[in-house]
Amino acid sequence: MAKKTKSRYSGIGGQAVLEGVMMKNGDKYAVAVRKPDGELDIQVEEYKGVCAGKKFAGLPFIRGIFSFIDSLVLGMRVTMHSASFYEEDAPDEKNEKAEGSKSDDIMMGVTVALSVIIAVALFMVVPFLLSDLLGRFVRNESLIAIFEGIIRILIFVGYIAAISLMEDIKRLYRYHGAEHKCINCIERGRTLDVRNVMRSSRQHKRCGTSFLLFVALVSVIVFFFIRVDNMALKILIRLLLVPVIAGISYELIRLAGRSDNVFVRIISAPGMWMQRLTTKEPDEDMVRVAIASVEAVFDWKTYLKENFGYTDEILQAETESQAVDI
After folding, report:
1. Residue 300: is it exposed, middle or buried by C-beta count within 10 angstroms (0-12/13-18/19+)?
2. In what order do the strands lie in the sheet with 13-17?
3. DSSP string, 91-138
4. What's the pLDDT at 108?
5. Buried-exposed string 17-49: b where 16+ CB fall within 10 A, e elsewhere
6. pTM here?
7. Confidence band, pLDDT 50/70/90 cuts, at residue 3
8. Which pLDDT band holds residue 102 (cuts at 50, 70, 90)?
9. Angle formed by the axes of helices 312-325 and 300-308, to 10°?
10. Count of C-beta atoms within a 10 Å radius of residue 152
Protein backbone atom coordinates (compact mmCIF):
# COMPACT_ATOMS: atom_id res chain seq x y z
CA MET A 1 0.00 0.00 0.00
CA ALA A 2 1.35 3.44 -0.97
CA LYS A 3 2.08 5.85 1.78
CA LYS A 4 -0.63 8.49 2.08
CA THR A 5 0.16 12.10 2.85
CA LYS A 6 -1.90 15.24 3.15
CA SER A 7 -4.16 16.39 0.35
CA ARG A 8 -2.42 17.41 -2.91
CA TYR A 9 -3.83 19.89 -5.42
CA SER A 10 -4.86 18.15 -8.65
CA GLY A 11 -6.03 21.06 -10.80
CA ILE A 12 -9.33 19.45 -11.75
CA GLY A 13 -12.67 21.04 -10.98
CA GLY A 14 -16.23 20.38 -11.90
CA GLN A 15 -19.91 21.05 -11.72
CA ALA A 16 -23.07 19.03 -11.29
CA VAL A 17 -25.50 19.06 -14.21
CA LEU A 18 -28.90 17.49 -14.80
CA GLU A 19 -28.39 13.77 -14.11
CA GLY A 20 -24.65 14.09 -14.54
CA VAL A 21 -21.31 15.69 -13.80
CA MET A 22 -18.92 17.94 -15.71
CA MET A 23 -15.21 17.75 -14.96
CA LYS A 24 -12.62 20.20 -16.29
CA ASN A 25 -8.86 19.77 -16.50
CA GLY A 26 -6.95 22.58 -18.18
CA ASP A 27 -8.68 23.44 -21.46
CA LYS A 28 -10.48 20.10 -21.70
CA TYR A 29 -13.79 19.28 -20.08
CA ALA A 30 -16.03 16.23 -20.06
CA VAL A 31 -19.76 15.99 -19.40
CA ALA A 32 -21.09 12.59 -18.34
CA VAL A 33 -24.90 12.32 -18.31
CA ARG A 34 -27.12 9.37 -17.44
CA LYS A 35 -29.75 9.46 -20.19
CA PRO A 36 -33.42 8.50 -19.64
CA ASP A 37 -32.79 5.07 -21.21
CA GLY A 38 -30.03 4.40 -18.66
CA GLU A 39 -27.17 4.75 -21.14
CA LEU A 40 -24.20 6.89 -20.13
CA ASP A 41 -23.36 9.70 -22.55
CA ILE A 42 -19.87 11.24 -22.32
CA GLN A 43 -18.93 14.35 -24.29
CA VAL A 44 -15.35 15.65 -24.29
CA GLU A 45 -14.70 19.18 -25.58
CA GLU A 46 -12.28 22.09 -25.22
CA TYR A 47 -12.96 25.47 -23.65
CA LYS A 48 -10.06 27.91 -23.61
CA GLY A 49 -11.87 30.84 -22.00
CA VAL A 50 -13.03 34.29 -23.09
CA CYS A 51 -9.52 35.74 -22.87
CA ALA A 52 -7.40 32.75 -23.80
CA GLY A 53 -3.78 33.66 -24.50
CA LYS A 54 -4.04 37.16 -23.01
CA LYS A 55 -1.30 37.76 -20.42
CA PHE A 56 -3.34 40.27 -18.42
CA ALA A 57 -6.04 37.62 -17.87
CA GLY A 58 -3.58 35.66 -15.72
CA LEU A 59 -2.66 38.50 -13.36
CA PRO A 60 -3.64 38.14 -9.69
CA PHE A 61 -7.08 39.61 -8.89
CA ILE A 62 -7.69 40.17 -12.63
CA ARG A 63 -7.76 36.43 -13.33
CA GLY A 64 -10.61 35.95 -10.89
CA ILE A 65 -12.91 38.17 -12.95
CA PHE A 66 -12.35 36.17 -16.14
CA SER A 67 -12.47 32.87 -14.27
CA PHE A 68 -15.90 33.83 -12.96
CA ILE A 69 -17.10 34.73 -16.46
CA ASP A 70 -15.69 31.48 -17.86
CA SER A 71 -17.43 29.44 -15.17
CA LEU A 72 -20.75 31.08 -16.03
CA VAL A 73 -20.36 30.53 -19.78
CA LEU A 74 -19.14 26.95 -19.49
CA GLY A 75 -21.66 26.18 -16.76
CA MET A 76 -24.52 27.35 -18.95
CA ARG A 77 -23.17 25.37 -21.91
CA VAL A 78 -22.93 22.04 -20.06
CA THR A 79 -26.26 22.59 -18.29
CA MET A 80 -28.01 23.09 -21.63
CA HIS A 81 -26.28 19.98 -22.97
CA SER A 82 -27.45 17.80 -20.08
CA ALA A 83 -30.98 19.24 -20.20
CA SER A 84 -31.28 18.42 -23.91
CA PHE A 85 -31.53 14.71 -23.07
CA TYR A 86 -34.60 15.33 -20.93
CA GLU A 87 -36.53 17.71 -23.18
CA GLU A 88 -39.69 16.43 -24.77
CA ASP A 89 -39.15 15.38 -28.40
CA ALA A 90 -35.40 15.93 -27.89
CA PRO A 91 -33.49 15.78 -31.21
CA ASP A 92 -31.11 12.93 -31.87
CA GLU A 93 -27.38 13.52 -31.61
CA LYS A 94 -26.89 14.39 -35.27
CA ASN A 95 -29.69 16.93 -35.34
CA GLU A 96 -28.50 18.38 -32.05
CA LYS A 97 -25.03 19.03 -33.51
CA ALA A 98 -26.52 20.46 -36.69
CA GLU A 99 -28.60 22.90 -34.69
CA GLY A 100 -25.62 23.97 -32.58
CA SER A 101 -25.47 27.18 -34.55
CA LYS A 102 -24.50 30.75 -33.89
CA SER A 103 -28.02 31.50 -32.67
CA ASP A 104 -27.49 29.05 -29.80
CA ASP A 105 -24.32 30.88 -28.76
CA ILE A 106 -26.16 34.20 -28.86
CA MET A 107 -28.99 32.80 -26.75
CA MET A 108 -26.49 31.41 -24.26
CA GLY A 109 -24.74 34.77 -24.06
CA VAL A 110 -28.04 36.55 -23.41
CA THR A 111 -28.94 34.00 -20.74
CA VAL A 112 -25.58 34.42 -18.98
CA ALA A 113 -25.91 38.22 -19.09
CA LEU A 114 -29.43 38.10 -17.64
CA SER A 115 -28.27 35.70 -14.93
CA VAL A 116 -25.51 38.12 -13.91
CA ILE A 117 -27.91 41.07 -13.88
CA ILE A 118 -30.44 39.20 -11.72
CA ALA A 119 -27.73 37.98 -9.34
CA VAL A 120 -26.24 41.47 -8.94
CA ALA A 121 -29.68 42.97 -8.36
CA LEU A 122 -30.66 40.32 -5.81
CA PHE A 123 -27.41 40.04 -3.85
CA MET A 124 -25.94 43.53 -4.23
CA VAL A 125 -28.64 46.14 -4.87
CA VAL A 126 -31.53 44.72 -2.80
CA PRO A 127 -29.48 44.45 0.45
CA PHE A 128 -28.31 48.04 -0.05
CA LEU A 129 -31.86 49.33 -0.54
CA LEU A 130 -33.11 47.46 2.53
CA SER A 131 -30.23 48.70 4.67
CA ASP A 132 -30.86 52.23 3.42
CA LEU A 133 -34.29 52.06 5.03
CA LEU A 134 -32.51 51.58 8.33
CA GLY A 135 -30.84 54.94 7.74
CA ARG A 136 -34.13 56.62 8.60
CA PHE A 137 -33.79 55.36 12.17
CA VAL A 138 -30.02 54.86 12.63
CA ARG A 139 -27.42 57.55 11.91
CA ASN A 140 -24.35 55.35 12.35
CA GLU A 141 -23.06 54.56 8.85
CA SER A 142 -20.84 51.75 10.06
CA LEU A 143 -23.81 50.01 11.65
CA ILE A 144 -25.81 50.41 8.44
CA ALA A 145 -22.94 48.92 6.41
CA ILE A 146 -22.79 45.91 8.74
CA PHE A 147 -26.57 45.53 8.51
CA GLU A 148 -26.31 45.54 4.70
CA GLY A 149 -23.76 42.75 4.84
CA ILE A 150 -25.91 40.67 7.18
CA ILE A 151 -28.91 41.05 4.84
CA ARG A 152 -26.76 39.98 1.86
CA ILE A 153 -25.57 36.84 3.63
CA LEU A 154 -29.10 36.00 4.83
CA ILE A 155 -30.48 36.37 1.30
CA PHE A 156 -27.76 34.08 -0.04
CA VAL A 157 -28.28 31.41 2.64
CA GLY A 158 -32.05 31.70 2.33
CA TYR A 159 -31.91 31.30 -1.45
CA ILE A 160 -29.71 28.18 -1.17
CA ALA A 161 -31.96 26.69 1.51
CA ALA A 162 -35.14 27.43 -0.45
CA ILE A 163 -34.07 25.84 -3.75
CA SER A 164 -32.70 22.81 -1.90
CA LEU A 165 -36.33 21.86 -1.18
CA MET A 166 -37.00 21.24 -4.88
CA GLU A 167 -36.81 17.58 -5.95
CA ASP A 168 -34.73 18.28 -9.09
CA ILE A 169 -32.29 20.37 -7.06
CA LYS A 170 -31.98 17.60 -4.47
CA ARG A 171 -30.78 15.23 -7.21
CA LEU A 172 -28.49 17.94 -8.58
CA TYR A 173 -26.96 18.35 -5.12
CA ARG A 174 -26.37 14.59 -4.94
CA TYR A 175 -24.41 14.74 -8.20
CA HIS A 176 -22.62 17.76 -6.72
CA GLY A 177 -21.64 15.53 -3.81
CA ALA A 178 -20.41 12.86 -6.23
CA GLU A 179 -18.25 15.45 -8.01
CA HIS A 180 -16.63 16.57 -4.76
CA LYS A 181 -16.13 13.02 -3.55
CA CYS A 182 -14.24 12.10 -6.73
CA ILE A 183 -11.89 15.08 -6.43
CA ASN A 184 -11.33 14.46 -2.71
CA CYS A 185 -10.68 10.78 -3.37
CA ILE A 186 -7.91 11.59 -5.84
CA GLU A 187 -6.42 14.48 -3.88
CA ARG A 188 -6.25 12.32 -0.75
CA GLY A 189 -4.20 9.74 -2.61
CA ARG A 190 -6.80 7.03 -3.09
CA THR A 191 -7.46 5.02 -6.23
CA LEU A 192 -10.53 6.22 -8.09
CA ASP A 193 -13.11 3.49 -7.58
CA VAL A 194 -16.65 3.43 -6.25
CA ARG A 195 -15.68 2.18 -2.79
CA ASN A 196 -13.04 4.86 -2.20
CA VAL A 197 -15.18 7.65 -3.66
CA MET A 198 -18.17 6.75 -1.51
CA ARG A 199 -16.10 7.04 1.68
CA SER A 200 -14.56 10.38 0.67
CA SER A 201 -15.85 13.75 1.90
CA ARG A 202 -18.52 15.59 -0.05
CA GLN A 203 -17.13 19.00 1.03
CA HIS A 204 -14.28 20.65 -0.86
CA LYS A 205 -12.56 24.00 -0.25
CA ARG A 206 -12.54 24.98 -3.95
CA CYS A 207 -16.30 24.67 -4.33
CA GLY A 208 -18.31 27.38 -6.09
CA THR A 209 -20.52 27.61 -3.02
CA SER A 210 -17.50 28.67 -0.99
CA PHE A 211 -16.58 31.20 -3.68
CA LEU A 212 -20.04 32.82 -3.57
CA LEU A 213 -19.91 32.97 0.22
CA PHE A 214 -16.49 34.62 -0.02
CA VAL A 215 -18.08 37.17 -2.37
CA ALA A 216 -20.75 37.92 0.23
CA LEU A 217 -18.22 38.23 3.07
CA VAL A 218 -15.68 40.27 1.10
CA SER A 219 -18.42 42.66 -0.01
CA VAL A 220 -19.17 43.40 3.66
CA ILE A 221 -15.58 44.57 4.17
CA VAL A 222 -15.27 46.46 0.87
CA PHE A 223 -18.61 48.27 1.11
CA PHE A 224 -17.91 49.17 4.74
CA PHE A 225 -15.50 51.86 3.53
CA ILE A 226 -17.87 53.53 1.04
CA ARG A 227 -18.79 56.92 2.41
CA VAL A 228 -20.84 58.95 -0.08
CA ASP A 229 -24.20 60.65 0.38
CA ASN A 230 -25.70 60.43 -3.10
CA MET A 231 -28.00 57.39 -3.46
CA ALA A 232 -27.31 56.85 -7.18
CA LEU A 233 -23.57 57.15 -6.59
CA LYS A 234 -23.71 54.59 -3.80
CA ILE A 235 -25.40 52.06 -6.09
CA LEU A 236 -23.02 52.85 -8.97
CA ILE A 237 -19.93 52.36 -6.78
CA ARG A 238 -21.27 49.02 -5.58
CA LEU A 239 -21.83 47.86 -9.13
CA LEU A 240 -18.36 48.98 -10.20
CA LEU A 241 -16.81 47.12 -7.25
CA VAL A 242 -18.42 43.77 -8.13
CA PRO A 243 -15.44 42.73 -10.36
CA VAL A 244 -13.03 43.80 -7.61
CA ILE A 245 -14.89 41.68 -5.05
CA ALA A 246 -14.94 38.73 -7.47
CA GLY A 247 -11.18 39.09 -8.00
CA ILE A 248 -10.43 39.12 -4.27
CA SER A 249 -12.76 36.18 -3.63
CA TYR A 250 -11.10 34.16 -6.37
CA GLU A 251 -7.67 34.65 -4.82
CA LEU A 252 -9.03 33.47 -1.47
CA ILE A 253 -10.61 30.34 -2.97
CA ARG A 254 -7.42 29.72 -4.95
CA LEU A 255 -5.37 29.95 -1.76
CA ALA A 256 -7.78 27.61 0.01
CA GLY A 257 -7.37 25.02 -2.73
CA ARG A 258 -3.58 25.01 -2.48
CA SER A 259 -2.96 25.39 1.25
CA ASP A 260 -4.10 23.72 4.44
CA ASN A 261 -2.80 25.90 7.24
CA VAL A 262 -4.80 27.21 10.20
CA PHE A 263 -5.68 30.50 8.49
CA VAL A 264 -7.00 28.71 5.41
CA ARG A 265 -9.06 26.31 7.51
CA ILE A 266 -10.62 29.23 9.39
CA ILE A 267 -11.59 31.24 6.31
CA SER A 268 -12.82 28.08 4.55
CA ALA A 269 -15.02 26.95 7.45
CA PRO A 270 -18.15 28.99 6.54
CA GLY A 271 -18.06 27.75 2.94
CA MET A 272 -17.55 24.15 4.04
CA TRP A 273 -20.55 24.53 6.34
CA MET A 274 -22.67 25.93 3.48
CA GLN A 275 -21.80 22.90 1.39
CA ARG A 276 -23.85 20.82 3.79
CA LEU A 277 -26.79 22.45 2.01
CA THR A 278 -25.48 22.34 -1.58
CA THR A 279 -24.08 18.79 -1.54
CA LYS A 280 -25.88 15.58 -0.62
CA GLU A 281 -24.75 11.96 -0.42
CA PRO A 282 -24.86 10.32 -3.88
CA ASP A 283 -25.69 6.71 -4.65
CA GLU A 284 -23.20 4.40 -6.35
CA ASP A 285 -24.58 4.99 -9.84
CA MET A 286 -24.13 8.75 -9.45
CA VAL A 287 -20.55 8.10 -8.37
CA ARG A 288 -19.96 5.95 -11.47
CA VAL A 289 -21.16 8.84 -13.65
CA ALA A 290 -18.76 11.23 -11.87
CA ILE A 291 -15.86 8.77 -12.20
CA ALA A 292 -16.52 8.46 -15.94
CA SER A 293 -16.35 12.25 -16.27
CA VAL A 294 -13.04 12.40 -14.38
CA GLU A 295 -11.43 9.60 -16.37
CA ALA A 296 -12.38 11.27 -19.67
CA VAL A 297 -10.10 14.26 -18.97
CA PHE A 298 -7.73 13.33 -16.14
CA ASP A 299 -5.06 10.62 -15.85
CA TRP A 300 -5.50 9.93 -12.14
CA LYS A 301 -3.17 6.93 -12.15
CA THR A 302 -0.22 9.03 -13.30
CA TYR A 303 -1.22 11.68 -10.77
CA LEU A 304 -1.11 9.12 -7.93
CA LYS A 305 2.27 7.87 -9.11
CA GLU A 306 3.76 11.37 -9.21
CA ASN A 307 2.24 12.71 -5.99
CA PHE A 308 1.72 9.72 -3.69
CA GLY A 309 4.39 7.21 -4.67
CA TYR A 310 2.11 4.62 -6.24
CA THR A 311 3.61 2.00 -8.53
CA ASP A 312 2.00 -0.02 -11.32
CA GLU A 313 1.98 -3.04 -9.03
CA ILE A 314 0.14 -1.21 -6.25
CA LEU A 315 -2.40 0.24 -8.67
CA GLN A 316 -3.03 -3.17 -10.19
CA ALA A 317 -3.38 -4.81 -6.77
CA GLU A 318 -5.88 -2.20 -5.56
CA THR A 319 -7.84 -2.38 -8.80
CA GLU A 320 -8.07 -6.18 -8.52
CA SER A 321 -9.08 -5.88 -4.87
CA GLN A 322 -11.90 -3.52 -5.78
CA ALA A 323 -13.04 -5.86 -8.56
CA VAL A 324 -13.29 -8.73 -6.03
CA ASP A 325 -15.26 -6.57 -3.58
CA ILE A 326 -17.75 -5.64 -6.29
Report:
1. buried
2. 13-17, 20-25, 28-34, 40-46
3. PPHHHHHHT--HHHHHHHHHHHHHHHHHHHIIIIIHHHHHHHHHTTT-
4. 62
5. bbbbbbbbbeeebbbbbbeeeeeebebebebeb
6. 0.87
7. very low
8. low
9. 120
10. 24
